[in-house]
Amino acid sequence: MTSHPNARLFIEGVGFWMPALAGWTAARAVLRGEERAPSTLSARPSCALLAPTERRRAPDTVAVALEVAGEACRSAGRDPGALACVFASTHGDLAISDYMCATLAHTPTLISPTKFHNSVHNAAAGYWTIATGSNEPYTAVTAYQHTFAAGWLTAATQALADAQPVLYVAYDIQAKGALATMAHSQGLLGAALVLAGEESASSVARIGWRIEPDCEVRPTQARPQNAALAAGNALADCIAFFEALADGARRELVLSLAPQLALHLEVEPRH
After folding, report:
1. Distance (Å, rounded) from C-alpha 174 to C-alpha 134?
2. pTM of the model
3. Which band of pLDDT confidence, cut at 50, 70 and 90, is reported for residue 6?
4. CATH number where 160 lies
5. Predicted local confidence at residue 147, as pLDDT
6. How far apart, in whole angstroms, are the C-alpha atoms of residue 5 and residue 116?
7. Residue predicted with more confidence, 7 or 91
8. 28-55 pLDDT, tens per residue?
9. Is 194 within a domain?
10. What whole-number distance in Å separates Cα of residue 120 and Cα of residue 124?
11. What pLDDT band is residue 3 in, cutting at 50, 70 and 90?
């Protein structure tokens, strides 16, 4: 099935974080080619949304997801506790998954309850609802190398079906241990969008979209200098989308939803 050719959404808020680009303002300037990425790297976001107890327990996946989610809500002028949300991650927390496997194999009685608690795929979404006091529904998504597009489509359809803005958060971190030989990912990357079905004073871009089945999917590539910023991260294919947002000019993109299923996006930034 192909979506209606005039299907459209509006982006109200953007969040972005990686060690070289801490925040959408910094990322936008670099992705546009106006500035160079700084040589000093941040270790991980501060996770300021969480109370000190939760902050100490929160792994990198939670820290980066909450950082970009909070930034997107602030830039959209939306109450974070009032938004339904979609959290997408290719692998979840690979460092904790590796720890769990190694401990179960050698000393199973020493499994940390906190690490077990943080190992589930919806951990970041759970921390978000605690931090914001949200009672709104959330969805946790993974689709292997198609995760960013699958999460985007999930959030988009929810925003249109419910006629309510939806927060979309995508993130992946570095693979560790034996799992890194099979589940490849490097660095730390998080990105977030507030998607709405209607234009508002907060809208920063209009997105036209359609789904094309039974096709040879050729995903749009970011410019080489931008692609290099996230090279190796499991979520690196999102860089082309955020590059298009940063450019400030109409641009068409193709994202992969499956081996023969493409998501076509027409990005029109609002000035």
Report:
1. 29
2. 0.94
3. low
4. 3.40.47.10
5. 97
6. 44
7. 91
8. 999 999 988 887 788 889 888 888 888 8
9. yes
10. 9
11. very low
User: Residue with structure tokens 């605690």?
Assistant: 130
Instruction: Extract the tokens encoding 203.
Output: 């809208």
Classify residue 62: in a domain, yes or no: yes
What average pLDDT score do residues 116-128 get?
A: 90
| Burial track 258-270 (b if 16+ CB lie within 10 A, e otherwise) | eeebbbbbebebe
* 198 located within any domain: yes
Residue with structure tokens 């997801």?
A: 65
Residue 221 structure tokens: 């590539």
Q: Which domain holds residue 103?
A: 8-202
**Nearest-CA neighbor of 236 among 270, 189, 271, 177?**
189
> Exposed e or buried b for every residue in 50-83, given b needs 16+ CB within 10 A?
beeeebeebbbbbbbbbbbbbbbbebbebebeeb
- Residue 271 identity (one-letter amino acid): H
- List, in sequence order, every beta strand (DSSP E) within 89-143: 138-141
Q: What is the pLDDT of residue 1?
A: 41
Rg of the chain (C-alpha set): 18
3 state DSSP class of 112? coil
Do the beta carbons of residue 16 and residue 191 sit within 8 Å?
A: yes
pLDDT band at 169 (very low <50, low <70, confident <90, very high): very high
Number of domains in the chain: 1
Residue 92 resides in a domain? yes
The percent of residues above 90 in pLDDT, for the chain, comes to 72
The token duo for 235 is 């979520």
Q: How many CA atoms lie within 13 A of 30 on its CB side?
A: 23
Residue 75 has pLDDT above 70, yes or no: yes
Do residues 260 and 215 make contact, with C-beta atoms less than 8 angstroms apart? yes
CA dihedral 52, 56, 61, 66 (to 10 degrees): 10
